[in-house]
Design goal:
3 strands; Cyclin A, domain 1; 2 domains; 4% strand
């Protein structure tokens, strides 16, 4: 779209004067056009006045059982439907869990949409009803590729991990939804948690890609793969990481990590990765030396 300019002087300094309802050139004062007043025609001097006079509500959201379309009369009326009461309870819990986990609003809304897609299948899942909100949140996190552990969801919801996992698998099968959480997302998360430089993340992704090409990642735990790639990348660059701390942060056993490390060792024999790691290591050492010289000069 072309930039609006004054037809008299050619200036782009155009001002919307809402009091007069005109588009005015800020340089020469030429009136270009009239504008439609979009603000309300009433004035409110307090929040109470605004609430009383507003004729439009909040935006539509799937996190409300009625999408936020209720009239004032409907809000004051009694909810008689069992399905509606169940929907309200589940959506309230979804909102609570998502707020506690501090996840994006889009992920919480996706969980609410999955709930609506279930429809009457909610009745057939009575034994999973208590785990439904947490399972929907976990499913939404997987779909959006947000690396949050099942343990975190279980702690906030107050349920056992195995119950949430069982319900999650049933939901994924029923809704025909696939997880989009990639290994590189977990690698990025680990690098951030452990406070490692960005070079480690770059090399870890290279190790993972080479391992995937050789078929070493098929059917393996995503977090264990990411942990092994991160550990090997850090070690190759001369950065020390404790295996105990790594498995604690990731949530996998030491034996699982060591098995993945043994499998990935062959990838490090690749000449390209070795060469790139040496170049990266020299770059890190050079940056360290520059910082040290800067400190001494001060």
């Amino acid at each position: 779209m072309d930039e609006l300019r004054c037809t008299s002087c050619g200036s782009a300094n155009i001002i919307e004067d809402k009091n007069s309802g005109e588009l005015v050139c800020g340089d020469c004062g030429h009136v270009l056009d009239r504008i439609i007043y979009s603000d309300p025609e009433w004035r409110a001097y307090s929040y109470g006045d605004r609430v009383k006079r507003e004729r439009a509500g909040a935006p539509i959201t799937p996190l409300l059982h009625d999408l936020g379309l209720s009239t004032r009369y409907r809000k004051n009326s009694k909810i008689n439907s069992d399905e509606e009461r169940t929907m309200i309870a589940i959506l309230s819990e979804i909102y609570r869990i998502s707020s506690s986990l501090n996840i994006p609003q889009s992920a919480a809304q996706a969980a609410a949409i999955f709930l609506r897609k279930l429809g009457r299948e909610i009745r057939s899942s009575r034994k999973f009803l208590r785990a439904l909100p947490a399972s929907l949140i976990y499913l939404s996190l997987k779909v959006h590729g947000i690396p949050r552990d099942l343990k975190e969801v279980a702690e906030v919801s107050g349920l056992e991990q195995k119950i949430i996992r069982r319900c999650y698998l049933k939901l994924a099968e029923s809704l025909k939804v696939r997880s989009l959480t990639d290994v590189d997302v977990y690698i990025s998360k680990m690098v951030k948690i452990l406070g490692l430089p960005g070079e480690v993340e770059h090399l870890a992704n290279d190790i993972y890609k080479k391992s995937a090409i050789k078929g070493l990642t098929q059917g393996k735990n995503t977090k264990a793969i990411a942990a092994a790639a991160t550990y090997l990348a850090a070690r190759t660059l001369g950065i020390s990481i404790s295996q105990r701390r790594l498995v604690k942060e990731v949530g996998v056993s030491k034996s699982t990590l060591r098995r993945r490390l043994r499998e990935f060792e062959a990838v490090l024999s690749d000449g390209n990765i070795r060469k790139e790691s040496r170049i990266t290591l020299r770059r890190i050492n050079l940056a360290t030396e520059v910082n040290e010289i800067g400190r001494r000069s001060h």
